[in-house]
Amino acid sequence: MSTFEENASIGFIILDSNWHFIYANDYGASILNRSPEELLGKMAWAEFPAAIRHASYSYFHQARKSGKEISFNEYVKPSNQWIHVSAFPVGENLHIVIRKTEMLANHFAMENDLYQKYTNYIQDLITLTSEDGILLYVSPSVKNLLGFELEDMYGASVLAFCHPEDMDGLKSIFINEKECATNDQGIVTCRFLHKKGWYVWLENNFKWLLDEQGKRTQNLGIWRDISERKIVEDRFIQAQRLGQFGSFERDLDEDSIVWSVEMFRIHGLEPALRIDLCKAIEPIVVDDREKVALAIKQAILVGMSDIEYKIIRQDGDIRHLRSQIERVVLDGGRMAVRGLVHDITIHKRIEQELTQSKAKLEIAQEIAGLGHYEWDTINNMVYVSDELNALFGCKDAVQTLPIEVLHESIHPEDNLRMKMAIKKALHEGTMDLIFRVVVRDEVRILHTLAKTTYDEWGRALCLFGTVQDITVQKQTEELLRKTEKLHVAGQLAAGIAHEIRNPLTALKGFVKLMCHANEESKLRYYNIMQEEFNRIELILGELLILAKPQAVAYMPHDPITILEEVIQLLNTEAIMNNVEIMLIANTILSSVNCERNQIKQVFVNVIKNAIEAMPSGGILTITAHNQANGVNLQFVDQGQGISEDRLPRIGEPFYTTKEKGTGLGMMVSFTIIEEHHGVIRYQSKLGVGTTVSIQLPASVQ
Ligand code: ADP
Ligand code: MG
Question: Where is the Histidine kinase domain positioned along the sequence (predicted)?
Fold first, then answer.
């Protein structure tokens, strides 16, 4: 035992059956960072609880159990060293011998071995250079990575292998920063020459090795092939450029921000790697700075935020930016915010122009008394302009409402027609409808024109239309029509009187004759008289129809029958003016859905004009034929014709060239044809004649 005592580098400790220290020499105690006196009587595992997790705990138990000596190496935390421990059970007690070990040396040897393996087998390139960048060591992986032999590289400068454009980054390690000892390690990316002539993107994690005075001696570099990452990065940059997307990343611990190239471009600045925080804030317009700060705070707090703000560039250009910011956790647990920034200036401009033109449109509509609506067919909500709101008698503030609300105001008799028209509009793209609304017990007549927009799959998205209140216009038209009717009737009266007087004279004569006639003659007279009465009845009937205000009732009619009736009515007047009316209709015409008396009035007006245009007589040829979707009637006269500059004026109220004309005939006729969804057209040549063609849609059976 004394031998242990004497040898100061051997520790000796005895523990009793309950793990209490019953002996410890100086060295043994010092290894545990205690004096022998401090240890005596203490329970080992109570005194050194951390040791329970160490090898000694299980080895000591094992030795006790087996009764055999056991040896092991262990690192002792209290004295911070590796020791070799042997433990022998002696009776109840456990004797422990501790020696200093060569463990640490072993550890270095192992590390060296591992390092060798690492440098030989891993793909990364490891270099050791002098402070000037001369290569002192290059790992064998250089062959795989760059195709060079080790001998090609030893003694050369790392700069010799670097792409000229990336030289600055690399030079900054060896030349520029040589004196500044603050950055002893860092990352630099550059392209390195491959023996076959191309370049490989490498990322260099470097560390300066320092001597005792803190002076840089050698540079240890680990180079990783990042070509693939570079390609992805390049694509990302390209995508940002194409999409006008910039991005930024701000490490909250740092005063500068990483900006993407496109981010600099958006700001009109020269690209760099980073930008100072204050420089980055500077372009943001003062009013928006707080908003941006809040958005960043929000991103830190809840993970994400969205923001729109404006910047003023140095060239004075104002840009609208939209940014989505998110919180990220970097390697090492540091917090950062990252954002995608989109230049939306153009969108904003378009949006503004759109709002402006919308506003202009609204003013124009207000002036014109025109309302408009936009029916979003997908959400079934209708946007109504203020004008329309007023027309429909809705409450002022309401701007969007379900279409059903509008339907409520529509006149019950027009509801079905409206629904059909909407269905047709969604299907065919347009709507042109006159309908009535009942607002506070007052009926108003509205005219709507609308267009449907479709998406790329042909699905109806929206029906946009204008609405005009035509109540007053309609009332005036109706009034004019009545006036014109009376006028025509008055004019006709002369002809009619003549027409009636003739048969009456004849009748008078026959009545006289009958007094003296025999039975046979009487029968003949009766027949002639009957015919004359019929004629009077017919003419009076026509006159009554024209004079009577009629309820509008659209029904299918044969246009030829109506024409024949009108010709019958006007024939006397024609003959008196030496005009021959010829009706040419070779086929059976489609029937036309019309208000009979109105169409009749149109024919009367047109034929009368033709007769009046031929004061010295001529032929009025009326041809009728079927055409796509309807019938076409042409009234060709041989009158004086109409000069080209006057042609557009026909149909204007009170436009007449006649001494006793009203200038209402054609106006009324145009309106009637329009209401029948027909077309009326004038063609004329001075001195040759005029052709009036009327097209009417066929009634759908
Ligand atoms: P009015 O017959 O009372 O003048 P209208 O409206 O019927 O009124 O016609 C307007 C004008 O159009 C006529 O005054 C005439 O100058 C011209 N016009 C209409 N039809 C013809 C025609 N067939 N030939 C020549 N001029 C015509
Ligand atoms: Mg006329």
Answer: 495-700
